[in-house]
Design brief:
This protein is an alpha+beta fold. It is built from six helices and five strands, in the order βαββββααααα.
């Protein structure tokens, strides 16, 4: 296995600018797009499962812990058996929380939660217990991000991308991780946010024969 010298994203999430957060999301979505094309849904994406590696002046992102990943045949295939619930409640898509079948857009929802948290310092849905958190994912609209205005940055457009990723219905989210990544990059065309490092491919669990 690759030896990684870095920190989990959970240790950095309170001190990032909007451009840094979007750059991190860009790499996460690249990795997920690679996994989804191979028919793999992560199902437990969260800051503790994302390693941030600063190497040679470049920041690289590694997606870790595919222990709950589900392997299918192709992107877009529903892979979770109805009635089964896996994942971490704080980052769980509504369909995942209710035990319905999921597709790669459940991972996209988790990225929306992570990006929301990176930019606001709080998760969109919180509560005193798991039941309250899951009820928020299932029933409540995300609270407004209320990001500060930044010259040269269309903050409202960034918020719109995040809120689309957090749509209750998978059909209302972006059609793929790549589509969400491109939408974020489009809002930052005047600023460099896409990582200069090679396209990362997450370390995937071996497929059983």
């Amino acid at each position: 296995m690759e030896l990684l010298d870095g920190r989990p994203l959970s240790e950095l999430r309170n001190g990032l600018s909007i451009s840094e957060a979007v750059a991190i999301a860009d790499q996460i979505l690249r990795g997920l797009a690679h996994a989804h094309r191979m028919g793999v849904i992560h199902r437990d994406l969260k800051p503790d499962n994302i390693m941030v590696i600063d190497r040679g002046g470049e920041r690289r992102i590694k997606i870790l812990d595919f222990g709950l990943a589900k392997i299918g045949e192709a992107e877009g295939v529903a892979l979770t058996q109805a009635g089964s619930v896996f994942g971490t409640p704080r980052y769980m898509a509504p369909e995942q929380a209710s035990g319905e079948e999921i597709d790669p857009r459940a991972d996209q929802y988790a990225v929306g939660v992570i990006l929301y948290e990176l930019l606001t310092g709080r998760a969109p849905f919180e509560g005193e217990n798991v039941r309250q958190v899951l009820a928020g994912h299932l029933l409540d609209p995300p609270p407004p991000l209320r990001l500060p205005a930044i010259p040269g940055v269309n903050v409202a457009a960034i918020e719109a991308v995040i809120l689309r990723a957090l749509a209750k219905s998978p059909a209302e989210r972006f059609e793929s991780a790549d589509a969400m990544r491109l939408a974020l990059a489009e809002r930052f065309r005047s600023r460099r946010v896409v990582s200069p490092c090679p396209r990362p491919g997450p370390s995937l669990p071996p497929q059983s024969s």
